[in-house]
């Protein structure tokens, strides 16, 4: 276990936590840091970024603060307590505005506003509360106590930010060598280490050497910048100079001298008097498709009709049903008239009706606002978008009702202030605690988890080796296309000259529970999306998973009479036709 000495000069005690660059202190010195910030600890120390309850030595108000926050405030000579800070700020603000006491808040209004933000009202800190004065509240989700102005209550535990723009395709750790990027032709194989190309991803921040295929210039630039758009410094300089020269020429060239502009000119101004560049007013144009944009001549000359370009953009998937299917699933079926998820864009500002499928709550909200702010799935239940229940229903089925929140309130890789409890879907008597991240990354029930492969799975792996010549057992697969989980383990992985084939053996006992069926479906869809052929050997009377895909196939096997060699021969016979058939 890594240990670190306290950073206080002269103190030889062991630090309560470890860091790479920043100071770390022992518990006694941490208490000294808090006292310097005007606080005394009420709870034991649990980490530099963990919220710890402290009592102000000046006003006595108790609230949660992180050690990191106190250190930052100490660095600028400011006390940590926010109750003291906002009360003194209120006095200065009223004196500055010269308006005396501003808008007063009734207790009922304070309670209502904090409740809407997910906080419990603990009381006011002054006799009369106006819009400047702080109040005390407690987050209902994590129990954090905060002193703040009425409109400033927000807790980090309720953040539900998305990892990327909704219409962007997921990139993940895509190898640069397999990305198909235009920049691959610029890679300088003589100057770069041979291992660099094999290990670099499209998002790598490392510098690499490049060679311009046009002018032959050799230069160094970061991989991610070149993967996004390869640019040669010398060629870019020449293009910039050429653009400036062309702009100067067009600044003395009238619109009438450019046939394309003159043909689209629809303005009352004389085209012989209006220069192509430098005329920054809005002029009327008419494009061949009948659009009538108003813009300056140089913009139309260089970029063309904006309406025609927008039409090309609109041809890409933008409707709510395709971009944000989870939000589309809550579209009210009867109160939105002619509008539907299939004809409304995902970022529309139109106010429409929604209906929660968990509690039946109905409300109006703009489409674009559904994927912003806290990204709530239901404002009444405070459930969130992108939750564990939506992304991985098979894993959510094992979430214990004893946990303080439901799987609709936490993301698959979110942090929880408690260690979740789980109930095995195969044997409900198996109950254990395990971090959410461990379960999401593939950890199973510790009592059901086998110490190795079963005999029947080993026999099928051996048969795959005989039939295909090479096969892996228990291969860990990762791919940017995976949605439900970051990684999946394949029972048997076969790489032929044409295909990557995952063969799963579904034992009747282990794969019959409803939660396991959901996991099998999620796993199959992720593997198919990543380009694998997926074959499931379904044991005895297990029902089909009803996955219709040309690269998916199920075969029936029997526990009483396993025939691994015959199963592998059947798979090999199916593979050449997999691209043109549907599952059967």
Automatic annotation (TrEMBL):
InterPro entries, per database record: DUF4379 (IPR025487)
Gene3D superfamilies documented for this protein:
VSR Endonuclease
Q: Where is the Treble clef zinc finger domain?
A: 184-238, 327-382, 395-450
Identify the Pfam families for this entry. Answer: DUF4379
**Stated name of the protein:** Zinc-ribbon domain-containing protein
